[in-house]
Automatic annotation (TrEMBL):
Listed name of the protein: Peptidoglycan/xylan/chitin deacetylase (PgdA/CDA1 family)
Alphabetical UniProt keywords: Signal
Molecular function in Gene Ontology: hydrolase activity, acting on carbon-nitrogen (but not peptide) bonds
UniProt-listed Gene3D superfamilies: Glycoside hydrolase/deacetylase (3.20.20.370)
Domain NodB homology: 63-270
Amino acid sequence: MTAVPVFLYHSVSDDPPPWIAPFAVTPRAFAEQLDRIADAGRTIVPLHRLVAAIRGGPALPASSAVLTFDDGFADFYWTVAQLLTERGLPATLFVTTGAIHPPGGVAAGSLLPPAPMLSWRQVVTLDACGVEIGAHTRTHPQLDTLPSRWLASELVGCRQELEDVIGHPVTSFAYPHGYSSATVRRQVAQAGFSSACAVVNAFSSGNDEPLRIARLMVRADTTAEKFRSWTRGEGAPVAPLPEHLRTKGWRLYRRARAAVGSPVGGPPEI
């Protein structure tokens, strides 16, 4: 398997809330990016096909790509789903369940700032239309700073809430902020997930780690040329990649801050 771009999106909107705006793209830009993927001759495949290939199953088409979306913004239902349906493209939507609105109610609560988010009814509809629904925790915390019991609650609770609503197993997961550790990944597997997406800003590959799948984050400042190079399999390293010393140091710092009740904030994904 050659380098596989697994694209990571958040909001697709002309007017996103300021806190997510640096990580949002406009509907026009998103449609153009889908066209660039097609122009490069890439076949967009479901995430589960990539996971199966990594685990030794059927090979992917020679030039493949995957689309993923984090958090559960309402614009996925109103904008993204239509663009994907028009082109017959699969995608995976990772849902933060605490940010989802119950029928006729309000969100149960998450660490994400206010934003228009999906309702449970919309999640069910998207699932019925073929969008793969994955888990993104209950409250969107930095998982690698949590005590074991709290971590398990975020993982198992999110999965159970999703399965109770859509009525079938949820086996894919994405780490909030892209943060994980060996301990977190073990608990993700113990919670029943067969795959988990990180960020890494690298291409995935046949040798990638199923519980640390590399993704390329598409941001508001992602240029057309950079995106075009990704569709050509250029401009980023190929996973698996060793964890950098600065990543380990940053984790220790965040854990220390969390331990004294002053957690480090930051963007939705880094």
